[in-house]
Fold this sequence. Notes:
By secondary structure, the chain is mainly β. It has helices spanning 114-126, 132-141; strands spanning 14-17, 22-27, 37-43, 51-54, 58-65, 67-72, 75-80, 84-87, 93-97, 102-109, 144-148. It is built from two helices and eleven strands.
Amino acid sequence: MANGAYVLAPGEGRRLDMGPFGMVIKANAEDSAGGLTLLEADEPAGFGPPMHIHDDAAEAFYVLEGEYIVYIEGAEHRCLAGSFVYVPAGVEHGFRVGAGAGRKLNIYVPSAMEGYFGSLAAATAEGTTLSAADLTVLAARHAMRVTGPVPEGYV
Length: 155
């Protein structure tokens, strides 16, 4: 549409395959004049990143299916379908998918993390396995600091 508005039907958007999980980009920096990134993520049971901080954007999750265990600065939260989580920029957090597969929306405001997930998808397509050190360097290029593993006892 000439005014920048657009509509995506279910399943539409740019797909990113990152091996154990996949994402569909619903809105990116170009689509939103830098205002936000919206990603739909499909993730297997037990999946999740290490604890981390986004220095350049707030992150929010909206759980569509399954259960996510979200850890924010010392507190653990069990988030079922319909749960919303907001994490301001600069706040340490992480998550794990519960016992079954999960599906959620990730929202970054302003737009962020597109390059990070695009790089992961490119590495997967090339058959490249990234080490934990490689992932930490990649994260740093996208204003994300990996702060360590999830806390002991975290699902």
